[in-house]
Design brief:
Radius of gyration: 38 Å
Order of helices and strands: HHHHH
Number of strands: 0
Distance between the termini: 45 Å
Strand content: under 5%
Helix content: 40-55%
Number of helices: 5
Length: 131
């Protein structure tokens, strides 16, 4: 049986993962993994300076770097930018003016509030029947 605290942790982790994917941070994470793997491979073949230069120069991408670049391009193609148009209002053709009525009178109070019938509660109050 899964407890409530574990469900909350799973929900928080899912929300964080969705946010990471939404802002595109997963590409940065994958690129970091690719650079780390490339650096480890290049360190086996030469010195630290040579490995760092070969890893980050951009001329020797690994297969993971190529896949990341292709994925970024496909994400940009799928994400069309919304074109916001300027809200334009047509000019008014006439001028409207508010004028007061010629005669103005208040409604009488008798018509404004209807009278409520005044009823008194029955005396003595009714008793409930035994069940």
């Amino acid at each position: 049986m899964i407890c409530v605290a574990m469900l909350r942790r799973i929900a928080k982790a899912a929300m964080i993962a969705a946010l990471v994917v939404t802002i595109g941070a997963h590409w940065a994470l994958l690129q970091t993994v690719a650079w780390t793997a490339m650096l480890a491979d290049n360190l086996r073949q030469g010195s630290v300076c040579h490995a760092l230069a070969r890893t980050f120069d951009g001329n020797h991408p690994c297969c993971l770097c190529k896949a990341i670049a292709a994925g970024k391009k496909s994400d940009k193609k799928k994400d069309p930018r919304l074109q916001f148009k300027k809200l334009e209002c047509p000019p008014a053709q006439f001028y409207a003016a508010l004028t007061a009525p010629f005669r103005f009178e208040l409604a009488p109070w008798t018509r404004a509030f209807p009278k409520s019938p005044a009823r008194r509660p029955p005396s003595p109050p009714p008793r409930s029947l035994p069940v």
